[in-house]
Design goal:
668 residues; Beta-Lactamase; Alpha-Beta Plaits; 3 domains; eight-stranded mixed sheet; 21 helices; flat; transferase
Length: 668
């Protein structure tokens, strides 16, 4: 074979060799490039996540401290209001108009304004809405408003709400700009009004105490702190979505100013429904990250924990809590995150490009493509197994339902709870595993999924195979097929302990610890409900005669036993449908419906007889007999409130006490 022939034979083989090399190169480089993209993408996600977590953690201390500061400030105002309302001069002045009392109160209001620099106005308002005393605080000093300049506030929202309050209740207005003579005061004065009734020793409501808390410094402190943050975009939002504080001051007070209608949801329409519906959390959007938390400035329970404060039993109304359910929102825009990210620097971008070019340059040295493929397959299988194990053995239950509520899939955790095998559950309607009272809740839950993409926090009672029941909190996400609801992916968490705790707390809140009957708070709740449902209402006020003598002679432990025996005796005499409660000390109250005045009096007389003839053992050698004085009153008008009926029953009780005791007297 000549050299020319050999050269001609080798030429095709050389071309095939290079073609094979280039083919393998292209294939391996494609795989390598994809792998590099995944790795860099993963690294970018992890790095960005860590960066975001770091930035959010820097904001967490501010969120906690700001929340605590706002709550403590509101708590302080409640304590100051509590302190002021203890003054006997308030009721004395409102009853008699005594000039000395007026001077003392004016001095007290001036001292409060000068000391705390927090009160724009302090008012005393009578039952007709007329200002009796008013203090105004301005930068040029503190002034007591002359009598001729006092106003009538009968039509104001805070007067209308305050006049409904009982002893110890406080109405707190939303934070809003102050209005004087129908106009927004300039410069703007954001205020929160604290209103509580003035009640004398007889339980008579004489008027209202109103303190305007000036929020300017509170909000300015918040803004000053926000300017120290990474981007300064911190916001305080009222329950209606308006800004009380914003880095763009022109957006503030849309709830008070007619020419500003800007709300949080106008700028961030997709973020607001989530932030508004949840207490706190972190929300990522295409514009950036929101860190949000509900402030709830009156959620603290420390008011009244000391003996001196318990005498007032100050409580903020539920409407007031709703008025001031503020949201603290910190926004980290994407541009701020990118400024801190390595991947958005020139060096970082150059590094990514270098990695891809470098991988192409060394691709000819990579000979382990099959091993890479095998490892990739093994990794995929491992991930699949891990996901399967995570699903089956998760600490919470998972199941999938079709649109009719039939179980399509369920994990092992939930099967363990139910006590059934998988074959016994798959294909069954999920309501088959619920108690009767939960089936309706489940039907509503399934119906809601027809319209909403997700439903959260639905409480259901599960019926196990062994008849044991427990409570779960259920959340579901719907999967659509051609735009219609097809499958619900559902998670469940066992909340039995939480339900039991809530029931226990409800019992503690509504029950007199000593006697086991309803306490004062629960009585008023039940009484107001009964007044809405029934027309014929009788109220019996009962007081143990000479009870102080029992404590003095036998001691307070025996006195407690006597109170328990009185409660037990009353429950044995009374019909089950009546409301029996201990108002405090040795004083009890009974509310019965459907009794005429004559029958109510006869029931009272029967109680007196039974109690008088029921000996109470105090030790191994002696028994004592306790008698009761009772005052009864009938509901006169349909709109008559429980306080008014109680007042007349209390007057009748006083007559029974002063005319010999151990008797029942009907209110005239």
């Amino acid at each position: 074979m000549t050299l020319t022939q050999l050269s001609a034979e080798l030429q095709p083989k050389k071309e095939v060799f290079w073609a094979t090399i280039f083919k393998r190169f292209a294939w391996m480089y494609a795989i390598t490039a994809v792998l590099l993209a995944l790795i860099i993408g993963y690294a970018y996600q992890q790095y960005t996540q860590n960066l975001e977590d770091k930035m959010l953690s820097q904001e967490q201390a501010f969120v906690s401290s700001t929340t605590q500061a706002l709550q403590q400030e509101m708590q302080t105002q409640l304590k100051i209001l509590q302190m002021v309302t203890r003054s006997k001069a308030l009721s004395s002045f409102m009853e008699s108009g005594d000039p000395t009392s007026r001077q003392g109160l004016e001095k007290l209001f001036i001292n409060l304004a000068i000391t705390f620099h927090r009160y724009d106005q302090i008012r005393l308002i009578d039952m007709q809405g007329n200002e009796a005393i008013r203090m105004n605080y301005h930068t040029d000093g503190v002034h007591i408003v002359a009598a001729k300049n006092l106003q009538n506030k009968h039509d104001s929202k805070y007067f209308q709400e305050g006049i409904k309050l009982s002893r110890g209740q406080v109405y707190v207005s939303p934070m809003e700009l102050n209005v004087e003579y129908g106009e927004i005061e300039i410069p703007y004065k954001p205020v929160v009004r604290f209103v509580t009734p003035i009640i004398n020793d007889k339980g008579e409501k004489l008027g209202l105490m109103v303190m305007n808390y000036l929020s300017t410094e509170l909000l300015q402190n918040f803004r000053d702190q926000m300017e120290l943050r990474i981007n300064g975009q911190g916001m305080l939002i009222d329950p209606n979505g308006y800004w009380m504080s914003n880095h763009d001051r022109s957006n503030e007070w849309g709830g008070s100013l007619e020419d500003i209608d800007q709300k949080f949801e106008n700028l961030y329409p997709s973020a607001w429904p989530i932030i508004d519906s949840k207490e706190e959390g972190i929300l990522k959007s295409n514009k950036g990250i929101f860190r949000y938390v509900s402030i709830k400035p009156f959620s603290l329970n420390s008011i009244g924990k000391y003996v001196a404060e318990q005498d007032i039993n100050l409580s903020v109304t539920q409407q007031s809590i709703a008025n001031n359910d503020w949201k603290l929102v910190i926004f980290l825009p994407n541009v701020t995150i990118h400024e801190q990210s390595f991947f958005f620097t020139t060096f970082g971008q150059f590094t990514v490009i270098f990695i891809f070019l470098g991988s192409a340059a060394i691709l000819f040295l990579i000979l382990l493509s099959s091993e890479q493929k095998r490892r990739q397959q093994r990794q995929d299988l491992l991930i699949k197994n891990e996901l399967s194990d995570l699903y089956e053995n998760s600490p919470c239950g998972y199941h999938s339902l079709d649109k009719h509520g039939i179980v399509l899939k369920i994990n092992q955790t939930e099967l363990n709870w139910l006590g059934y095998s998988r074959q016994e559950v798959i294909g069954k309607h999920f309501s088959d595993f619920l108690t009767a009272k939960s089936t309706g809740v489940f039907d509503a839950f399934l119906e809601q999924l027809q319209h909403d993409k997700s439903v959260e926090g639905v409480v259901l009672e599960i019926q196990c195979k062994n008849a044991h029941t427990f409570f779960v909190s259920t959340s579901a996400t719907s999967i659509l097929e051609k735009g219609h609801f097809a499958i619900a992916r559902t998670s469940t968490f066992d909340i039995t302990d939480r339900i039991k705790l809530e029931e226990r707390l409800a019992y503690i809140a509504n029950t007199d610890v000593l006697t086991g009957i309803s306490n004062r708070r629960h009585f008023f709740i039940q009484a107001n409900d009964r007044l809405k449902q029934e027309t014929d209402i009788s109220v019996l006020m009962l007081d143990a005669d000479h009870f102080k003598r029992v404590n003095d002679v036998y001691g307070h432990d025996i006195g407690d036993d006597v109170l328990k025996m009185i409660s037990s005796t009353l429950r044995s005499v009374l019909p089950k449908e009546v409301i029996l409660a201990r108002l405090g000390g040795e004083e009890f109250v009974i509310l019965a419906s459907g009794l005429s005045a004559e029958k109510a009096l006869k029931l009272s007389q029967k109680i007196c007889i039974v109690m008088e003839n029921t000996p109470i053992p105090v030790n191994n050698k002696a028994d004592i007999n306790i008698t009761l004085s009772i005052g009864t009153a009938q509901r006169i008008a349909y709109d008559e409130e429980i306080d008014e009926i109680l007042k007349r029953a209390d007057i009748a009780l006083y007559q029974a006490k002063t005319t010999g005791r151990n008797k029942a007297i009907q209110s005239s």
